[in-house]
From TrEMBL:
Name of protein: SDR family oxidoreductase
Family annotation (PROSITE patterns): ADH_SHORT
Any one biological process term the GO annotation gives: fatty acid elongation
Pfam families according to UniProt: adh_short_C2 (PF13561)
CDD domains: SDR_c
Origin superkingdom: Bacteria
Domain Ketoreductase, chain residue ranges per copy: 3-192
Coiled coil: none
Source species: Phreatobacter aquaticus
């Protein structure tokens, strides 16, 4: 029986790398994103490279009902859901006194409520099936430091990503031993979006990273694949920092 995985925000960047890493482990992959063309291209690449089945769903991850409909469709198509990767998210660089209420709510919804939506939809299926399912949610170094760089994120984003850590710890108690749930806190990862946002601060950021470079999406994806598929994985309710030891945050 094939292992199945859902990846939100899977069209490009870290989400695409996670989908590719999971496919390399033999997982059939369901991608969810608003970027329909990029998502279709990613699904085609993954299927050709790894011989796995793929599904794609165009969706706003903040939509609770849509999350349930997608997860039900994946379960109906493949019979089970083994892995959920909550990767979808978006930064917000505005200071707290400049952000509007709607912008704050949207930041919380995209980064935190989206995790709730897909966990709420997938957990009943995971709890009812045989075996131990895995959930990996993408938090951020911002959740621990209060902000890596003002060009990328500020308070609303840090608050949302910190919420993921609390949700992860509490759900580990509720879902154990049927679901192992963990979070990852990436530091500065060289996605296309980040490169566009920090063109003027690249050198100063790298000087503050002990390994001397920005992270790559694959640096995060390799840990996601481990947490999602490694049979001898005795961790739940944890967060893991992937930042090259970013000591100047």
């Amino acid at each position: 029986m094939s292992t199945t995985a859902i990846v939100t925000g899977g069209a490009r960047g870290i989400g695409k790398a996670c989908a590719e890493a999971l496919a390399a482990k033999g997982c059939d992959i369901a991608l969810i994103d608003l970027l329909e063309d990029d998502m279709a291209a990613t699904a085609k690449e993954i299927a050709a490279a790894h011989g796995v089945k793929t599904l794609t769903f165009t969706a706003d991850v903040t939509d609770f009902a849509r999350a349930h409909a997608i997860v039900d469709e994946v379960a109906k198509a493949w019979g089970r859901i083994d892995v959920l990767v909550n990767n979808a998210g978006a930064p917000n660089p505005k200071p707290i006194l400049e952000i509007t209420e709607d912008e704050f709510d949207r930041t919380i919804a995209v980064n935190l409520k989206s995790c709730f939506n897909y966990i709420h939809a997938a957990a009943p299926i995971m709890l009812a099936q045989e075996g131990v399912a895995r959930i990996v949610s993408m938090s951020s170094l911002n959740a621990l430091s209060g902000g890596v760089t003002s060009a990328v994120s500020k308070h609303s984003y840090a608050a949302a990503k910190a919420g993921i850590l609390g949700l992860t710890r509490s759900l580990a108690k509720e879902f154990g031993p049927k679901i192992a749930i963990n979070a990852i806190c990436p530091g500065v990862i060289a996605t296309d979006l980040l490169k566009r946002m920090i063109t003027n601060s690249h050198d100063s950021l790298v000087r503050g990273i002990a390994l001397g470079r920005m992270g790559a999406p694959e640096d995060v994806a390799s840990l996601v694949a481990y947490l999602a598929t490694e049979p001898h994985m005795f961790m739940t309710g944890q967060h893991f920092v992937v930042d090259g030891f970013q000591w100047s945050c």
